[in-house]
C-alpha cells in the first residue's frame, strides 16, 4: 500500500477506495479556502453497511490536521478490505475523512482559524472554560520569529513554570484547551467551528436512524513508537476497550495514558453525549510516534510557523518537515507497524458482532 505525502493524494486514494467498496459518498466543501497546492478542501464521508435500524461505527480522521495522514491510511485500508470481502451487515460503518482539511493540507494542527477542533465542542459557548495556566505561559510562546535560539529560551521558561507549579500543571496549561488567545496553542475557538458543525450534524443524523453509536477518533502522538493507545471518552469505558482490542490480548494496544492534560471540548465525548438516550461510546485511538518532548517541540514550532515563521526559507522548510515527521514519521518501520495495527483494528472493531456487543 502506498503512503500519501499530501492531502490531495490522501483524498484521491480514499475516494477511490470508497468507490471500490461501493460506499455511499457525501462531500462537504470548505468554501473560500484552498489547500497548499491550490486544491479544493473538503470533508468526505463514506458509508457502507445498513443505513438504519442497527448500531453504527463512526470513524473520524484528521481532526488535528497534520495527524490526518495516518488516519487516512487506516480508513483507506478499511475500505479496500471491504471491497475485497463484503460490507458489514450487523452495523453501519461511517468513515469521515479529513475532518480538518485545511490543517491536513497545510500540515498544521489547527483549522483555517487556528482552532484546535478537539477542544471546540461545547454545549454552551457563552460560558467557555478558562485556562489560567495557559494565560500565564502564552507570553512565553508568543515570542519573536521562530529560531532554535527562541525555542531554547522557551524551553527554559517552561521548565521554570513546571518547577514552580508542577509538571502536570504545565501539561494542562499547554494542552487542556484555551479560548482567549486566538494566536495561541490549543485555541478552542469562541464558537462552533465549520468542521465540528459538520460532525455534529452527521452524528446527530446517525444517532436518529441507528440503534446506538460508537465513535472512534484517529490521532497520532500519544503512545510508544509503533504502538497504539485507546483513550475512552464516554461512560461506557469497558465497552470501548473491548471494541478496540485492548481486552483481547494484543500487547501493542494499551488502555489509557498517564500524565495527560485535563482537556475540555473533546469532540468524540461531545458527540456521544448528544446521542443520548441511545447507547453511545467514544474513544480516541492514538498511534504512537515520537516521544512527548518531541511532540511538544513540534507543536510549538507549528504554532510559530503559523504566526511568526523564520525569515530564512530553508529554515522554514526544515522546520515544517520536523513538524510533519513528528506526526507522520517517514520511517518505513513505523509505517509498516501502522499497517499492522490498522489490520488488527479492522479485524477487531470491524468484526461481525463487535459493535453490536459493545452497544448492547
Structural overview:
- It is a single chain.
- The protein has 360 residues and is of the alpha/beta class.
- The protein has a single domain (7-125, 189-290, 314-359), classed as 3-Layer(aba) Sandwich (Aminopeptidase).
- Helix content is 44%, strand content 16%.
- The protein has helices at 7-20, 68-84, 101-106, 132-141, 148-165, 167-175, 194-209, 237-243, 267-274, 292-307, 313-327, 332-349, 354-359, and strands spanning 24-34, 40-48, 56-60, 92-97, 213-221, 228-232, 253-255, 280-288.
- It has an eight-stranded mixed sheet with strand order 1-2-4-3-5-8-6-7, with helices on both faces.
- The mean pLDDT is 94.
Outline the fold blueprint.
Layout: H1 7-20, E1 24-34, E2 40-48, E3 56-60, H2 68-84, E4 92-97, H3 101-106, H4 132-141, H5 148-165, H6 167-175, H7 194-209, E5 213-221, E6 228-232, H8 237-243, E7 253-255, H9 267-274, E8 280-288, H10 292-307, H11 313-327, H12 332-349, H13 354-359
Keywords:
360 residues; alpha/beta; Aminopeptidase; eight-stranded mixed beta sheet; 13 helices; 8 strands; 16% strand; globular
Low-confidence stretches: none
* N to C succession of SSEs: HEEEHEHHHHHEEHEHEHHHH
Average of per-residue pLDDT values: 94
Number of strands: 8
Question: How large is the radius of gyration?
Answer: 19 Å
Number of domains: 1
The main pleated sheet reads as:
8 strands, mixed
Number of helices: 13
Give the fraction of residues assigned to helices.
Answer: 40-55%
Strand order of the largest sheet: 1-2-4-3-5-8-6-7
Range of strand content: 15-25%
Distance between the termini: 35 Å
Q: CATH class, please?
A: Alpha Beta
